[in-house]
Amino acid sequence: MSSIDHLFDNNKKWAQEITEQEPDFFQQLSQQQTPEYLWIGCSDSRVPANELLGMKPGEVFVHRNIANQVIHTDLNCLSVIQYAVEVLKVKHVIVCGHYGCGGVHASADDNSYGLIDNWLRHIQDVYRFHKDKLDAETDHGKRMNLLCELNVIEQVNNVCNTTIIRNAREAGQDITVHGFVYNLADGILKDLKVSV
Ligand SMILES: [Zn+2]
């Protein structure tokens, strides 16, 4: 038995359970997807979009990268936003960070992690934008939590400033951009109340 055989066993059980509850679930879903939500979150394995929202396949369109970044030159993220907004017509874009984010923490220490240092540089920019506020927090843990929140808020701004969202707004499309932060320690999502 190979080391990944259990993945296929798990998958069969999962598909079976859903089919028992809703016999034509997969058949219907295979025809089309109509998610109302676009989730832009961290790649961290502890922050799974569908599960923590209690949502089934088909209900949330997902993009994840390290430290939930929305960078104006990242064609991958921009393509996801464009497709979600213009084709799927999602009603909500959620940027979700999390406390204890390895990417956010790594951006604030002096170690080198290789290629990813270039990616994390964007979070160092967030630090620079909010340096006074962050430096005023003397407790390291609280300062990092604040940086996780400020990072989400900056990415919400970045989403709003894309031509995709601007064009959608001008065309009168109903769409709201939200900033959430997830607590690994209790599984609870917090709304940063920066919805635009
Ligand atoms: Zn993270």
Tell me what the structure shows.
It is an enzyme of class 4 (lyase). It holds the Pfam family Pro_CA. InterPro entries: Carbonic_anhydrase, Carbonic_anhydrase_CS, Carbonic_anhydrase_sf. It catalyses: hydrogencarbonate + H(+) = CO2 + H2O. It is a single chain. By secondary structure, the protein is α/β, with parallel strands linked by helices. The chain folds into two domains: 1-32, no CATH class; 34-191, Beta-carbonic Anhydrase, Chain A (3-Layer(aba) Sandwich). It has helices at 5-21, 25-31, 49-53, 75-87, 102-107, 116-129, 131-135, 140-160, 163-170, and strands spanning 37-42, 60-65, 92-98, 176-183, 188-191. The chain starts with a helix and ends in a 5-residue tail after the last strand. The mean pLDDT is 95. Bound molecules: zinc ion. Zinc ion binds next to helix 5.
Quick summary of this structure?
This protein is of the alpha/beta class. It contains nine helices and five strands.
How confident overall, as mean pLDDT? 95
Beta strands, count: 5
Radius of gyration: 19 Å
What is the spatial order of strands in the main beta sheet?
2-1-3-4-5
Low-confidence stretches: none
Sheet having the most strands: 5 strands, mixed
Number of domains: 2
- Tell me roughly what share of residues is in helical segments: 40-55%
CA-to-CA gap between the ends? 51 Å
Helix-strand topology string: HHEHEHEHHHHHEE
Question: How many DSSP helices?
Answer: 9
CATH homologous superfamily of the largest domain, by name?
Carbonic anhydrase
The shape is globular
Indicate the CATH class of the largest domain.
Alpha Beta
Ligands (ions, cofactors included): zinc ion
CATH topology of the largest domain: Beta-carbonic Anhydrase, Chain A
Please state the structural category. Answer: alpha/beta
Strand content: 15-25%
